[in-house]
C-alpha cells in the first residue's frame, strides 16, 4: 500500500497527464490522492514545484522501467505503443504524457524560477529514455551512432503521435508511428547484419 506522500506523487503525475501542469493545483492532488489537507507542505516543503518535479521523476521511472525490461527493440516498441494506446482509449483521449505536459508549459517570465526546475527534470527524463532506448537497440545489433539517432527519433515520434492522437481523438497516428518505427528498427538491424 502506498503512503500518502507516494499517492500524492502518483496523483500529480496522473492529473498532469490529463490537465497539464498549470491546471493541476495542490488542492486537486490532495482530493485525487485522498491525502490529508495539511500533508502537502509537510511532504513537499518545496511546494508545488517540488511536487511537480517528483511527479515527472515518477513518470520517468515508470516508463524507464518498461524500456529497461524489454527483451528486444521490437518488443519495447510494441509494449510502449500498446501502453499508450490503452491509456488513450481508457481515458477517452484525455491522458497524454506528463513529461511532455510540463515540457511545453514553460509559463510566463515571472514563473520561470518556479518552472525551470520542472522542465530541467523533464529534459533529464527524456535523456534517460533516449539512452535506454539506444542501449536496447545496440543490444539488438544496431550500430551505436544509428541507435542513438533511432532512439531520439522513436522518442520524438511516439510523443508526437500521442499528441496527435489526443487532438484527433483517434489512435491512427500512434499506429502509423508504430509501424514506421518497427520498419526503421528492422532496417537498421538488417543493414548491420548484411555484408558490405
From TrEMBL:
Keyword check for Repeat: no
Keyword rRNA-binding in annotation: no
UniProt keyword annotations, A-Z: DNA-binding, Transcription, Transcription regulation
Domain Transcriptional regulator LmrA/YxaF-like C-terminal: 76-180
Lineage: superkingdom: Bacteria
GO MF terms held by the record: DNA binding
Record-annotated HTH tetR-type domain positions: 12-52
Protein name: TetR family transcriptional regulator
Lineage: Bacteria, Bacillati, Actinomycetota, Actinomycetes, Mycobacteriales
